[in-house]
Amino acid sequence: MPLQPLTSRAILILILVFAAFGAQQTAVKAVVSDMAPLTQTFLRSLGGTVLLALWFVSQRRNPFRAPTGPSMLLGLLFALDFGFLYLGLALTSAAHAAVIYYTAPMMIALGAMYIVRDEPVRRFKVLGILFAFLGVALTAFSGASGSGAATVLGDLLCFAGAVCWAATVLVIRATDLRDLDAPVVLFHQLFGSVPLLGLATLVPDGGWAVHWSPALIGSLAFQTVGVAFLSYLVFFAMLRRHYTSQVSAMNFLAPLFGVVFAVVLLGERQNALFWLGAAAIVGGLCVVNQRRAGHPA
């Protein structure tokens, strides 16, 4: 099936997908007092694995046909990715987490040019990446007010999650995993992370001290069904049907939605330094996803 330009319907679907991605940080932050972050991400991965396995059964496909070593590495990186992110969310604001976590595409672009070397070096992209990382520094030291304060440690944990996300993509691009369908790769990320995240919930300080509430149930359902299963599947379907550069160009919507949901739903208030840093990150993300005539992003 030849790739097609984005249609109005596809753009609307992608807006909803990136809104779900951006809302995830707010969903986690809203219920950290009801369930520990590591327990949330464990249940998210477990539920996503089960749902994706059932989807493969319905498609009569076997997702386990994949190189063992790289697949195990994917599970480790995925566990570290969301482990760091969810721990960071307990210590910083949802808006900070959303903005800093979505610096990963910049690191992916940098790694593709200098580590994996499957993309040519482009100075305008490097400048956009450096500009975005300046935004991270501004954001990390901007503080926050309202329902959740921000800390440098929390921001650094979210940034570590972004580093693991970038490493995951680079491992996929540098190994035989690049020849597999994206849903199969996602399944191995989720499946491999479950035992590691399960062990992480056994740490002291009550990893399983849970206060069940409608908000917690709704948050877990959204994280598991809405994000880990449906949003990812739809996103990968869009990548199969439309030009990657056009789909990737809309990545900047995720941190923007993340900030909006944090402000509206959690009452977080940010200062001018945060908005300056966020603008630098989103601007850098837009530059990274730009393409010049004759070249993919």
Automatic annotation (TrEMBL):
Superkingdom in the source lineage: Bacteria
Pfam families tied to this protein: EamA (PF00892)
Protein name (Swiss-Prot/TrEMBL): EamA domain-containing protein
InterPro entries noted in UniProt: AA-Vitamin_Transporters, EamA_dom, EmrE-like
Localization terms from the record: Membrane
Keywords: Membrane, Transmembrane, Transmembrane helix
Membrane topology, record value: Multi-pass membrane protein
EamA domain boundaries: 10-140, 153-289
Family recorded in the similarity comment: Belongs to the EamA transporter family.
PANTHER family associated with the record: EAMA DOMAIN-CONTAINING PROTEIN, INNER MEMBRANE TRANSPORTER
Transmembrane stretches, start-end: 40-57, 69-89, 95-115, 127-146, 152-172, 184-203, 215-235, 247-266, 272-288
